[in-house]
Each structure stands twice: as structure tokens, then as C-alpha cells.
Design goal:
By secondary structure, this protein is an all-alpha fold. It has one domain (4-121). The chain is built from 6 helices and no strands. The chain is globular. The model has no long low-confidence stretch (mean pLDDT 87).
């Protein structure tokens, strides 16, 4: 029998990796980013949803490792850029603030999960 702490850590890594290999989180993230920056339209943040939707499509086409890496990189970039914007304290608890916080949290989880899936994943060429 293994140590329960090691088993818990292994399952946590496996859960993050499974999250990174899933095609659903980048789609949700693209929807949240579009909801925040569509009105008023902001050009630069709106570059993120098409890339994240493309990673979901690539994931469904069988490129799980590569799409996890691209999704992690773009999620981290959005997290970095969104973290630079300052928001007054009282606006954090409005609808926009909660959506922004949810988006940034999802970016962090995608960054970790996608990074693990990309780092630990195997490509089709390497398996043969």
C-alpha cells in the first residue's frame, strides 16, 4: 500500500492533467472573455476567444497535448494582462467583478492543468 499523501498528490496531478486535456474549459473561458470585452468592444482582449476556441477544436481532432499547451499559454497571458488592470474595491462585488474573478480563476486552473497535460503528455509520433 502506498502512502495516502502520495496517493492524494498523484490524484491531484491526474485531475489537473485531465482538466488540461479536456476541450470544455477553453470554450467556457472564451465565452467569459467575450462576455466581458464584447460591449464595449475591446480589440486586443477579443483576440483571445478565437485562439481558445481553436484549441478546443484541435483537442477534439485528437491533438490533446498540443492544444493543452496552447490553451495554457494563452490562459496565462490573459491572466497576466487581466491582473494588471486595477479595479476599485466596490466594483469587485458587482456582476462584472464576479465574472472577471471567475475568468481569472479559470485562467489559473487552465494554466496549471494545461501546463501539466503538455509537460506530461505524449504525442502520437513519440508513441510509435
Amino acid at each position: 500500500m502506498g502512502n495516502s499523501v502520495e496517493d492524494a498528490k498523484q490524484t491531484l496531478v491526474q485531475r489537473f492533467r485531465a482538466w488540461g486535456e479536456n476541450s470544455f474549459p477553453p470554450t467556457v473561458l472564451a465565452s467569459l472573455i467575450a462576455a466581458q470585452h464584447m460591449r464595449p468592444f475591446q480589440f486586443f482582449p477579443m483576440l483571445f476567444p478565437p485562439v481558445l476556441l481553436f484549441t478546443s477544436y484541435a483537442n477534439l481532432q485528437g491533438y490533446k497535448t498540443d492544444s493543452a499547451g496552447i490553451s495554457a499559454a494563452w490562459s496565462g497571458l490573459y491572466l497576466l494582462l487581466a491582473g494588471r488592470r486595477r479595479q476599485p474595491f466596490m466594483q469587485r462585488w458587482g456582476v462584472r467583478g464576479i465574472v472577471r474573478g471567475t475568468t481569472m480563476g479559470l485562467c489559473l486552473v487552465n494554466l496549471v492543468g494545461g501546463g501539466l497535460a503538455y509537460t506530461l503528455g505524449k504525442r502520437e509520433e513519440e508513441e510509435e
